[in-house]
Amino acid sequence: MAIEVSDSAREWIKRKGGVATVRLSPRHGCCGGGADIAVAEARPPDDPACYTGVEFEGLSLYLDPTLVGQGLRVDVAGFLGMGHLFVEGVSPTRS
Amino acid sequence: MTAHQESQSPSTSEGMGLFERFLSVWVALAIVAGVLLGQFAPAVPETLSRFEYAQVSIPVAVLIWAMIFPMMAQIDFTAILGVRRQPRGLIITTTVNWLIKPFTMFAIAWFFLTVVFAPLIPAERASQYLAGAILLGAAPCTAMVFVWSYLTRGDAAYTLVQVALNDLIMLFAFAPIVVFLLGVSNIQVPWDTVALSVVLYIVIPLTAGYLTRRALIARHGSEWYDNVFMKRIGPVTPMGLIVTLVLLFAFQGEVILEAPLHIVLIAIPLILQTFLIFFIAYGWAKAWKVPHNVAAPGAMIGASNFFELAVAAAIALFGLQSGAALATVVGVLVEVPLMLALVRIANKTRHHFPETETKATAEARG
């Protein structure tokens, strides 16, 4: 399986339109260097052609090709009606 | 750790580019360049020091904002919503960062700088170095931790949450801790000066970073923000750091030439403190059976410092010529070799920790 999505994350994404993008977000170190952190957002990507599309339990997921097959899991956390998607199972990388 | 597991961790050359791997060399070169500038072209720093407004040096303020703003602009504060994830890692790192680290830094620096090295450092100078150490101890790592997390195969989601939480706490805790510990050390700094430096070098860049992030993501999207905007402004921080160091040492030339040994003497308590804090957090994580991908970055966050903030606060509170500013720079000088040694320790002791979340930690998360 390319990806696992928790029940709560699936509901959250469905409420936001049923589309999610899982991509790498570069973070810069203050003394130089950096790492790419996997992030998930409940929205379609800027350019779907750059992503691997997966239809998964009623969701349209777009995965960064480098993240496919890494056994990652998308979960949601939050409180007071606010939520934030998190990607588990993948360490920071460097492109 | 098996050979297979060890090979899973990225090598230093893989994880860090030329600049950051040899940061100590560039900092040392910046010290030499600054000293030469101060000795052979003193008109340059003298002219720059004349541009002041409300006793704030404008060139220094611009350089400091250049260092800090990009780091603040990349913080995703919505990650704070994940504060209930990995609660043990968050409890350990937050406690170590804010309730232990500032005080052990003060104790170790006080003991070495004012007691052990008393015959080698004049008392007034020693108390300035102590002030610099206090500033370092109260400013936890905010950005390099992503590099340390990468090198130890850390949990990316935990790292994001911990950084956002730290920066939020820093907004409120940095000034009171600094004022308290400076007061204990009999170093008098007016509250309004501390408040001004917090507003100038934490509140303004953090607010500007947050508003910039929100506005640009709303207009251009998060992919553009990360891959275009941050890619352009991210490298400004290390460049700003090096230029600030050149300027700082243009004013510090006399001290360096008269007492180069002071750099080594300042480095000793800073190195001991880094190892102590790492082992407190790492040992605590092991006792609580925290998975390695949380324990390692958590201990790294505690051990490392937000040097740009410490340098900025030292300059704002005590001036470019101060011993406090010099002490914060020594922190930058030793950072990378020290942190890479901790990365190696973390990777070699991986087998002492659960690789993935245990049932106990899962239950704690609910």
Automatic annotation (TrEMBL), chain A:
It comes from the Bacteria. InterPro entries: CC/Se_fam. This is Fe-S cluster assembly iron-binding protein IscA. It comes from Halomonas ventosae.
UniProtKB/TrEMBL annotation, chain B:
It comes from the Bacteria. One of its GO terms (cellular component) is plasma membrane. It is a multi-pass membrane protein. Keywords: Cell membrane, Membrane, Transmembrane, Transmembrane helix, Transport. This is ACR3 family arsenite transporter. It is found in: Cell membrane. It comes from Halomonas ventosae. One of its GO terms (molecular function) is antiporter activity. Coiled coil: none annotated. Belongs to the arsenical resistance-3 (ACR3) (TC 2.A.59) family. The chain crosses the membrane at residues 21-42, 62-83, 103-123, 129-151, 163-182, 194-212, 233-251, 263-282, 294-318, 324-343.
